[in-house]
C-alpha cells in the first residue's frame, strides 16, 4: 500500500466527551490522503469504544490501545509510528476546519525551508460556544517567531501544527522533562534548525474548559516554560543545554546549580510567581507557595495587593490574609 501524505497524531486519555467531534472534523478534511493515528493512553472511560467504532467505519484510522504512559511518551510513540513525511497534531477536544490540512500542505510545499507551520485559531467553550479572544495572534514568519521568543510570547498552537517528521526527529522529539509545556520546549529547539511560521487563518477551533490539562496544571506548565526559555538562552549563547537529558525538571532552588549561574533561581522564581498570580488554579495549589516565597525573599511586589483582592474573589480568604501579611512585613 502507498504511504499517506500526512500522519495525523492524536493521543487520547479519557476524552469521550469531545472525541467524536474531533475525529469527525479530521475525517471531513478536503485533503483526504492521510492516516489518522489515535492512541488511547489507558483511558478508563468510553474512549476506546469510540475509537474502535470509528476505526471500523474508516480504514484510514489506525488505533493503538495500551496502558497509561502519559502524553509525552504517547507523542513520541506516534512520531515513531507515523508513515508519512508530514505529521499533523490534533487533540481529542478540538475541531479542525475542513481545509486545514489542504492549507498547511500547500504552505509546506511552497516553503521548502519551513519545517513547521501552525495556524491561528478560534477559542470555543465547553459547549462549542464562541469565546472572546484575549491577547495577540500567533506570529506569522520565522523572523516574527524569533522576536516572539525573545519577548516570551506564544509561538504555535500545538493541536494546530503540521511539521516535517524528520525535522522533529532530528532534535530528539518531545523531551520527557517538560510535562505540560512539551510543545514550547520543542518549538524552541526547532527554532535552531528550521524555519517556523503560522498561517493567518483560523484553521482550528480550540476548546477551553476547566478540566483541560492547561487549566489543571498551570503551575507546572509555567515552571517548565520558564526553564525551557532558560535552556533556549543557553543554546543561543553557545552554551550546553543542561536540561537535554533530564527525566524531570529540577526544583526552582536548584537552577543556579544546574545552569551554573548564580541568581538564576531568584530570577526564575520572580518570573514564575508574577505569571501565576493571575491563575485561579495556581493560586489554589503550589503556585501560591511560590508567590509567597517570592514576596518573603524581597521580590517585586507591584500589583500584588490586587492579588490579595483576587484571592478573595477566588474564594481563598486564608491565602489572601497570608499574602497580605507577607506584603505588610516585607
From TrEMBL:
Chain ranges of the Glycosyltransferase 2-like domain: 7-170
Keywords: Glycosyltransferase, Transferase
Molecular-function annotations in GO: glycosyltransferase activity
Source organism, top-level taxon: Bacteria
Family classification: Belongs to the glycosyltransferase 2 family.
Name this polypeptide is given: Glycosyl transferase family 2
Protein's organism: Novosphingobium lindaniclasticum LE124
Amino acid at each position: 500500500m502507498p504511504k499517506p501524505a500526512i500522519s495525523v497524531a492524536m493521543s487520547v486519555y479519557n476524552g469521550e466527551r469531545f472525541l467524536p467531534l474531533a475525529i469527525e472534523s479530521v475525517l471531513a478534511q478536503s485533503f483526504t490522503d492521510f492516516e489518522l493515528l489515535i492512541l488511547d493512553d489507558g483511558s478508563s472511560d468510553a474512549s476506546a469504544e469510540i475509537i474502535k467504532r470509528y476505526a471500523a467505519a474508516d480504514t484510514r484510522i489506525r488505533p493503538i490501545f495500551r496502558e497509561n504512559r502519559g502524553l509525552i511518551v504517547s507523542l513520541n510513540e506516534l512520531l515513531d509510528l507515523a508513515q508519512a513525511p508530514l505529521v499533523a497534531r490534533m487533540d481529542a477536544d478540538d475541531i479542525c476546519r475542513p481545509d486545514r490540512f489542504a492549507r498547511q500542505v500547500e504552505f509546506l510545499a511552497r516553503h521548502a525551508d519551513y519545517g513547521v507551520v501552525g495556524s491561528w485559531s478560534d477559542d470555543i467553550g465547553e459547549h462549542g460556544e464562541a469565546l472572546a479572544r484575549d491577547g495577540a495572534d500567533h506570529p506569522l514568519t520565522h523572523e516574527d517567531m524569533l522576536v516572539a521568543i525573545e519577548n516570551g510570547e506564544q509561538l504555535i498552537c500545538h493541536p494546530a501544527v503540521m511539521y516535517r517528521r524528520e525535522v522533529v526527529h532530528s532534535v530528539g522529539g518531545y523531551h520527557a522533562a517538560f510535562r505540560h509545556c512539551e510543545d514550547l520546549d520543542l518549538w524552541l529547539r526547532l527554532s535552531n534548525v528550521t524555519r517556523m511560521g503560522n498561517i493567518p487563518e483560523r484553521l482550528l477551533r480550540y476548546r477551553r474548559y476547566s478540566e483541560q490539562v492547561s487549566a489543571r496544571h498551570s503551575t507546572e506548565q509555567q515552571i517548565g516554560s520558564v526553564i525551557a526559555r532558560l535552556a533556549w538562552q543557553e543554546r543561543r549563547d553557545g552554551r550546553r543545554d543542561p536540561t537535554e537529558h533530564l527525566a524531570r525538571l529540577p526544583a526552582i532552588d536548584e537552577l543556579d546549580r544546574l545552569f551554573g549561574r548564580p541568581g538564576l533561581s531568584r530570577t526564575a522564581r520572580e518570573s514564575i510567581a508574577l505569571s501565576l498570580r493571575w491563575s485561579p488554579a495556581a493560586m489554589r495549589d503550589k503556585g501560591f507557595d511560590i508567590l509567597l516565597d517570592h514576596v518573603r525573599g524581597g521580590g517585586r511586589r507591584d500589583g500584588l495587593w490586587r492579588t490579595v483582592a483576587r484571592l478573595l474573589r477566588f474564594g481563598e480568604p486564608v491565602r489572601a490574609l497570608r499574602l497580605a501579611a507577607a506584603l505588610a512585613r516585607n
